[in-house]
Amino acid sequence: MPEPYTLRTERLILRPWRDSDFPLLAEIHSDPRVVEFLSRPALANRAESDAVIERIRAHFAEHGYGFWAVEAPGVSELVGSIGLSNIPFQAHFAPAVEIGWRLASRYWGQGYAVEAAKASLDFAFNTLGLDEIVAFTAPANTRSQAVMQRIGMTRNPLDDFDHPSVAEGHPLRRQVLYRIKNPANDPKV
Ligand SMILES: CC(C)(COP(=O)(O)OP(=O)(O)OC[C@H]1O[C@@H](n2cnc3c(N)ncnc32)[C@H](O)[C@@H]1OP(=O)(O)O)[C@@H](O)C(=O)NCCC(=O)NCCS
To answer: Measured at the alpha carbon of residue 114, what is the angle toward residues 108 and 117, in degrees to the nearest 5?
Structure first.
């Protein structure tokens, strides 16, 4: 079983999940602004929120990385969750590793998502040696797309897709896809 990595940035620690995080993540998930564009709408339910951490822990146990718990020392033990995850569904761009983020809304607008995302990307490219990272969200989630753009990801509209875990006709089914290549492997750089 690989050791889960911990990453440090100027203001944040990306760390494995603790049992004390369960109620903190549930509180984050109880905010409608946080879950507005997430494909599992029942996260306000405590058991559903707890299951998110259990799934992330299983991913860490298998791969050594995942969506980290993000702590801002001196500010909050848990500001949100940011990191890397293997895409669990079939898609034209899979197999692939995605980068994703969710923060308690009181911590939006401080650059935390970009700071943690850059550390995750650096880890993906320089420690894991991955060739490409993807991210996806609903077209209306402009805040999330702004993070993708700030960390250098780009979108080709031909990559847009229907999320197989979201029911047909649901407004979150259509997703935009962003990609970024490992600069070490990119002949254009
Ligand atoms: C998506 C999400 C993580 C973005 O959070 P965010 O705080 O807007 O992201 P960033 O880290 O890019 O912060 C940028 C903002 O911080 C500001 N900022 C303040 N201090 C900063 C600093 N020191 N460094 C960088 N930016 C800073 C920027 O000016 C920018 O402000 P703006 O939003 O008014 O333009 C957040 O909205 C979220 O958790 N949403 C709900 C979950 C979700 O939808 N996740 C994606 C599912 S696909």
So the answer is: 120
Q: Are 120 and 84 in contact (CB under 8 A)?
A: yes
Mind listing the pLDDT tens digit for each residue in 92-127? Answer: 999 999 999 999 999 999 999 999 999 999 999 999
Per-residue DSSP letters for 53-68? HHHHHHHHHHHS-SEE
Q: Is the CB of 31 under 6 A from ligand 1?
A: no
List the domains of the chain with CATH numbers. Answer: 7-135 (3.40.630.30)
- The two tokens of residue 92 are 């034209």
What value, to the nearest 5°, has the Cα angle with vertex 152 and ends 85 and 71? Answer: 50
Cβ–ligand 1 distance for 112 under 6 Å, the answer: yes
